[in-house]
Amino acid sequence: MSAESTSLNLLSVEQVVRERYSQASQKVEPALCCAVTPSQPELLKVLPPEIIERDYGCGDPAKYVTAGETVLDLGSGVGKACYVAAQIVGAAGRVIGVDMNDDMLSVARKYQPEIAQKIGYSNVEFRRGRIQDLATDLDVLDAMLASTSVANAADWMAFEERRKLLAKSEPMIASESIDVTLSNCVLNLVAEAERVQLIAELYRVLRPGGRAVISDIVSSKPVPEHLKNNAELWSGCISGAFEQRAFVKAFETAGFTAVELLERQAQPWQVVEGIEFRSVTIRAYRPKLTVATGEVAYVTYRGPWRSVMTDDMVLLSRGEPMLVHAEVADRWMIGPLKQQLIVERAFFGGPASQQSSATEEHGCCGEATKCC
């Protein structure tokens, strides 16, 4: 595959991505990302061909949502994943799509009444915003600009202060309001300098115990600068790819736990200068809020491995009960480790002020018992 194209030294990442996806909303671009066969094709029957044909993704994260949940789709495009998720979460659930591209949103919104009528309820809405700034609603921002005179730097600074206050007091997506956040081949399109903020925003909007399910393109090794500066490769979901280990690490660094690789494309989608680019889907959880209750629990790792190490660096040995605080056990019981643990709760009683001596007497938190 040729790497010759316009340089990103002259064009912003956001501008290049916006222009390419606007074109792709008007005319199908088959080479844009690597479409996958949906796991629940029956859910596509209510969707018009325009939405199916102009959906560009590399995974099927919507299949990991469940009934009654509030779902946020980052970079929702023409809305395919939103309308699929809407049928899974049902009338009791809710789906919000966020995209910055007017043309993509126009297609998605056009079919809202028709699809709502077909499925029997309306539980999908679309908002215009940047996924790395889920506090700022761009439609609201446009309305503010239309009613504000910005003639000089002082006016602009005053407007920017108003924008920040509004984003804080009335964010587009409220903190801790989402059960599951989806994204399908979009994170790689965000400029590298904004990716820490992007994943921090993902974390902010999730409820404690909520999860992110992200399908994206990763690379087999770090992408060199000359490929990153290629506008066609970046907007085509290639040269902006995370290196696979760095992708997982970015979620760990942001505070997510129980990060797991759900799916990984066996054969690379593209190979550029010896670097393999393929689709993966990961799931990561925002930890639950825990409160010290005085309870403790024995946790036993079932196997099959000799031992496993948790994200908080505790080694669990197969078949060996470990005494831990109950809130620690609760934290371990989200994500994939849940099926491999046996948890037996205990309670030493007494008010919180007495718990220290009580647990010490029973060996909890002592070196011998390895209690956490």
Automatic annotation (TrEMBL):
GO terms for molecular function: arsenite methyltransferase activity. This is Arsenite methyltransferase. It comes from the Bacteria. The lineage of its organism: Bacteria, Pseudomonadati, Planctomycetota, Planctomycetia, Pirellulales. It is an enzyme of class 2 (transferase). Belongs to the methyltransferase superfamily. Arsenite methyltransferase family. One of its GO terms (biological process) is methylation. Keywords: Methyltransferase, S-adenosyl-L-methionine, Transferase. Its EC number is 2.1.1.137. It catalyses: arsenic triglutathione + 2 [thioredoxin]-dithiol + 2 S-adenosyl-L-methionine + H2O = dimethylarsinous acid + 2 [thioredoxin]-disulfide + 3 glutathione + 2 S-adenosyl-L-homocysteine + 2 H(+); arsenic triglutathione + 3 [thioredoxin]-dithiol + 3 S-adenosyl-L-methionine = trimethylarsine + 3 [thioredoxin]-disulfide + 3 glutathione + 3 S-adenosyl-L-homocysteine + 3 H(+); arsenic triglutathione + [thioredoxin]-dithiol + S-adenosyl-L-methionine + 2 H2O = methylarsonous acid + [thioredoxin]-disulfide + 3 glutathione + S-adenosyl-L-homocysteine + H(+). SUPFAM superfamilies: S-adenosyl-L-methionine-dependent methyltransferases. Residues 67-255 form the Methyltransferase domain.
